[in-house]
Amino acid sequence: MDRFHLMNVFVAVAEEQGFAGGARRLGLSPPAVTRAVAALEDRLGVKLLTRTTRHVRATDAGARYLESARRILAEADEADEAAAGAHATPRGQLAVTAPVLFGNLFVMPGIVDFLKRHPDVSVSALFLDRVVNLLEEGLDVGVRIGELPDSSMRAIPVGFVRRVVCASPRYVKRHGEPRRPGDLAQHTIIAASPVTPTIEWRFGTGRPSVTTKVRPRLTVTSNDAAVHAALLGFGVTRLLSYQVAAHVAAGRLQRVLAAFEPPPLPIHVMHLEGRQASAKVRGFVDLLVDRLRAEAALA
């Protein structure tokens, strides 16, 4: 069998964690997929996948081969697109990651727009409130909030957000507005662990900054849950400015301690430098960058 075909089948089965899922993704029969993986293992002389009644997992050798296979297939796609010209039509699978709420608010509309424009593209969106390694997890494009470490990836700045403290007007009317960070000790605190994973909240732009220890009455693992609790008037929370921008504009929430806010956090759209020539990546990045730079909440 063709080596690229075998690689493609193996990648599909490994990523779908099942032969049936890999077969559906490729439009092949399960027996054909099983034969292809067996042929690849025979050719390499090593076991790539372990099979149970419920899951299929890559072995250590399979995980290493999976990373190489993804890179080789991506480079082959790039070569095809380069041969077709700089303006080749985007096609194929595109994998995108972003923080959960940011992805829902700002990235998903861009994905839908891109899919409508390019019917030969399909997108897999991974929205998680953790830093995802694009290379290790086989992703094409990612959105990062915060300072970036040195990286081989291309990073395009698109805006800024701030860590803001806010509460509902109803709560402020009932309990008063904190005037200094130390006043938070007298208030009911809602902690959103993705934004503020510790009980120490830092304020101010100078050095040293002001650090205030808070004692949350409510700790939640999703930012939208913290927003909801604050809208219900339960207490004071700390979130990123884009997460509450619409509610602040509508008067449902109000920012407090604005004079003590720390410096803004940059937002970047990132992709692997080696995939820069890919028409699907280039087209989606250009569209997403334009959309994010036009967002007033990220200015």
Walk me through this protein's architecture.
This protein is α/β, with parallel strands linked by helices. The protein folds into three domains: 3-83, Winged helix-like DNA-binding domain superfamily/Winged helix DNA-binding domain (Arc Repressor Mutant, subunit A, Orthogonal Bundle), CATH 1.10.10.10; 94-153 and 273-298, 3-Layer(aba) Sandwich (D-Maltodextrin-Binding Protein, domain 2); 163-260, D-Maltodextrin-Binding Protein, domain 2 (3-Layer(aba) Sandwich). The chain has helices at 3-16, 19-26, 30-44, 60-84, 100-117, 169-175, 223-231, 241-249, 279-293; strands at residues 49-51, 56-58, 92-98, 121-127, 141-145, 153-161, 163-167, 189-192, 200-203, 210-213, 218-220, 236-240, 254-256, 265-272. A five-stranded mixed β-sheet has the order 4-3-5-14-6, with helices on one face. It has a five-stranded mixed β-sheet with strand order 11-8-12-7-13. A two-stranded antiparallel ribbon has the order 1-2. Helix 1 packs across helix 2 (19-26) and helix 2 (19-26) crosses helix 3 (30-44). The chain starts with a helix and ends in a 6-residue tail after the last helix.
Comma- or semicolon-separated keywords:
five-stranded mixed sheet; 9 helices; D-Maltodextrin-Binding Protein, domain 2; 299 residues; Arc Repressor Mutant, subunit A; single chain
Tell me the strand order in the biggest sheet.
4-3-5-14-6
Structural class: alpha/beta
Helical content band: 40-55%
| CATH class category name of the largest domain | Alpha Beta
Uncertain ranges? none
Rg, please?
23 Å
Number of domains: 3
Query: Quick one: how many beta strands?
Result: 14
Biggest sheet overview? 5 strands, mixed
Strand content: 15-25%
Q: Span between N and C termini?
A: 53 Å
Q: Give me the number of helical elements.
A: 9
CATH-scheme architecture of the largest domain: 3-Layer(aba) Sandwich
The helix/strand order is HHHEEHEHEEEEHEEEEHEHEEH
Looking at the structure, the CATH topology of the largest domain is D-Maltodextrin-Binding Protein, domain 2
Give the overall average pLDDT.
Answer: 88
Gross geometry: elongated
